[in-house]
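seq:
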Amino acid sequence: MKLALDPRRLLDRLRGRERPSEPESSPLPIIRKMAFDFAGSDPPIPRHWLGGSILGTHLANGLNLVFPAGERFFVRSVHHYLDQIEDPELRERVRRFYGQEGQHAKEHERFFAILREQGLDIDTFIESYQKIGYAWLEPQVPHKLRLSITVALEHFTAVFAEHALRSDFLATHAAKPVAELLLWHACEEIEHKDVAFDVLATVDDDYGLRIAGLVAATALLVGFWTYASLTLLRQEPELDLARLAREGRTAFATRQVGGQKMASAFLTYLAPGFHPSQIANQQLARDYLERIGRVAA
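struct:
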C-alpha cells in the first residue's frame, strides 16, 4: 500500500531543511555590553512596534518578558555542575555563557521600562511568573532535569535566533532599537548554543534525560509565553476578533509564527546523535556582528 504522504518528506518539511551532519566549530562566546538607547529613540518606540501589529508586537513582547528570569535560571542550572567540569576550555565557555546571559537579562529589563511607559501592566505577569516558575516549580525539579530543560530551551532560542537573522523581517518591520536588541541577542544565542549541551553531556549523557528536558521545556515555554502574551493582549481594547483574525492570517502567511519553527526544532533535537554544532549558523551570527562592528567585545 502506497501512502499518500511520505512520512520522511513530512519530517523534512517540519524540520524546514536538511541539516549538515558534520559539526561546525564554535567560537568562544564574547561578552558584549550594549546599552541600547530605548528612551532616546527618534522617533519614539511606538506601542505597537512590530509593523503596527498588535498581535505580533505582544507575541514578541511576551517572549521578552519571559527572557530575563529564564536566562538567570539557565545560569543557575549550569553553575550547579561547575565543579564537575574538568575541561578548562569548557569552563571558560561556561564563564562567558554566564556573562552573555547576564547582559541579555539586563538589556531586556531595560526595555521593560519602555513597556511600562506605554501604559502596559507587565508587573502582574512578572510577579506571577517568578512565583510559579522559580519560587515554586524550580525547587521541585531535580537538578539534572533543570539542566536538561536549560539545554532544550537553549536549542529553541538558537533556532529562533537563526530565523531572525536569516529573515529581514525585524529590520524591515520592527522599531530600530528593538530590532537591534533582538538581533544582537540572536547572535549571542548562536555563539553559546552548545555550552549548556556540553555541560549536560559531561554530567549525564543519558538520552532519556535529554528528551525529558525537551518535553518539559516545550510545555514551559509554550505555557509561559502564551500567558505573557495574553496578559498583554487583554490590555488592548482596540483588538477585536476581526483584527485578531486578520493579523493572525498575516502572521501565518509571512511564516512569522513560532509554531512551525518550534516543531522543527523539537524534531531535530530528537535525533539520538544530535549536537547543536550540527546546525551551521555561526557564520550567520558573525556576519551580523561584523556589520554592526561588534565581533569583539
